[in-house]
Amino acid sequence: MKFTNEINRRRTFAIISHPDAGKTTLTEKLLLFGGAIQVAGAVKSNKIKKHATSDFMEIERQRGISVATSVMTFEYNGTLINLLDTPGHKDFAEDTYRTLTAVDSVILVIDSVNGVEDQTRRLMEVCRMRDTPVIVFINKMDRDGKNRFDLLEEVEKELSLHLHPMTWPINSGKDFKGVYDLDKKSLVLFTANTKASDEDVVEIKDLSNNILDEKVGEADANTLRDDVELVDGVYGDLDVEQYLKGKIAPVFFGSAVNNFGVKEMLDTFIRIAPLPQSRETSIRHLDVQEDKFSGFVFKIHANLDPKHRDRIAFLRVCSGRFERNKYYHHVRLDKDVRFSNPYSFMARQKDVIEEAFPGDVVGLFDTGNFKIGDTITEGEDFYFTGIPSFSPELFKEVVNKDPMKTKQLEKGLLQLTDEGVAQLFTQFGGNKKIIGCVGELQFEVIQYRLLQEYGASAEFRSMPYYKACWITSEDQKKLDEFTRFKTNNIAADKDGHLVYLAQSEWFLNTERQNNPDIEFHFTSEIH
Ligand code: G4P
């Protein structure tokens, strides 16, 4: 238990939202509180700008800035906070899903006008798979949003999440007057375009006090009294244990752009958010307090400068102390590796670090040794489980347009798929190389990067598949039979795992019915 103090002072989390809900704005306010940046506007949005001439060129631009914003570390009231960035564009959702495997909790931003949106749903599904604790920030209260009760009901229903309001809003839009902190029993008054300061906080021990009427007017004061009575009656005190189990999500109302309601949330976050957690591995439970170092790679950034094959692998420390220049065991390659220039990420500036502790993310300079999911230990052979690959939904055959560059093409495909940009399958019967993605944009990115970085010219030919499912069976004979019978629909992923490529939902359902001994999986563990 050598590192208990270091572990106790760390919190590692991500902010997730549907694009435009206010993730970037909130991130910036949190960094301002942490003193990590001095001026507003310092955090570059990682979303695709609406007026960009070409989406994928915009993605290239983003790749440049997103190394710097991949991990933002700052200190607030003695707590060391690691905020992991998640790509905004839905075509890159897989990257976000994997980042969620490296955090201990999330803050979910919801736009009070739009309520629950597509990406909110998908992201929350991933959180639920892991029972990740969630704090909800309902943003843009300065806009005429949905009725507060309706909104909470919508979130609870659509996301199957039990909510627990921590603050309660007084109106919205131009009548927004502030929030009542249900826990501290104080009123925080809102003035547009000014940062909430201590003077805006009025302590109200008893809501029947006239001071409330003075501050917000009699009608709003009475509505607040009624609301609070109702809310208190329904929710009572927050059960922190249930929050930590991912069962109850505390909710804050605010306006990120006005820096309103953010501090209340941050204060609660450092009070209740989970410490770096213990994890499961392929052979045993790994306690975060163990002395020996271990960690895993959840993200790789490659070839930012086409002239150098430089890659940065992002490693989440899971136990022990990571030290610069020390030899560690790369489990998959079964070899010893050491890192002379590991980075830490103090808000947009990379620093070489000497050591790191559980919860931290270290950037490792890599020359091609890493792929997503790789585990590094002090010698023990195990890998961390639960790092998923998701069934892609778009499939295209790779057509080599320049036979002289076949080697480069193969290398490029391997490296780009190691990075997690897309998945690579090799079809049985015919040996076709198939790229599977979750979004159309990824094909453009791959084509562009193959040419720019590897000098390989490739085109893609659409394939009529609807989903790729990993197949396994207790009965090897049945599995062999199935793969023989369905050769054209069977492929191997990069790790040699068998995949069934279904033409349509009907085919998939039929095969599942006809082959009860075969299991069809929609996610696969990387390894
Ligand atoms: P994202 O990262 O989740 O995609 O969202 P981002 O923070 O970029 O915010 C999306 C838009 O919403 C931005 O406006 C931002 O200023 C605005 N916004 C964020 N918080 C609030 C809020 O509390 N109230 C209101 N009214 N607006 C908010 P934009 O016009 O798209 O961009 P910008 O030109 O202002 O940067």
From TrEMBL:
PROSITE patterns attached to this UniProt entry: G_TR_1, G_TR_2
Gene Ontology cellular-component terms listed: cytosol
Keyword check for Repeat: no
Pfam family, one: EF-G_D2
Residue intervals of the Tr-type G domain: 8-277
Coiled coil location: none
Keywords recorded for this protein, A-Z: Cytoplasm, GTP-binding, Nucleotide-binding, Protein biosynthesis
Keyword Transferase listed: no
Cell location: Cytoplasm
Gene Ontology biological process terms in this record: regulation of translational termination
CDD domains named in the record: RF3
GO molecular function, one term: translation release factor activity, codon nonspecific
Gene3D superfamilies: P-loop containing nucleotide triphosphate hydrolases, Peptide chain release factor 3, domain III, Translation factors
Annotated positions binding GTP: 17-24, 85-89, 139-142
InterPro entries per UniProt: EF-G-like_DII (IPR053905), EFG_III/V (IPR035647), G_TR_CS (IPR031157), P-loop_NTPase (IPR027417), PrfC (IPR004548), RF3_C (IPR032090), RF3_dom_3_sf (IPR038467), RF3_GTP-bd (IPR041732)
PANTHER family xrefs: PEPTIDE CHAIN RELEASE FACTOR RF3
Role, per record: Increases the formation of ribosomal termination complexes and stimulates activities of RF-1 and RF-2. It binds guanine nucleotides and has strong preference for UGA stop codons. It may interact directly with the ribosome. The stimulation of RF-1 and RF-2 is significantly reduced by GTP and GDP, but not by GMP.
Family classification: Belongs to the TRAFAC class translation factor GTPase superfamily. Classic translation factor GTPase family. PrfC subfamily.
Name this protein carries in UniProt: Peptide chain release factor 3
Species of origin: Lacibacter luteus
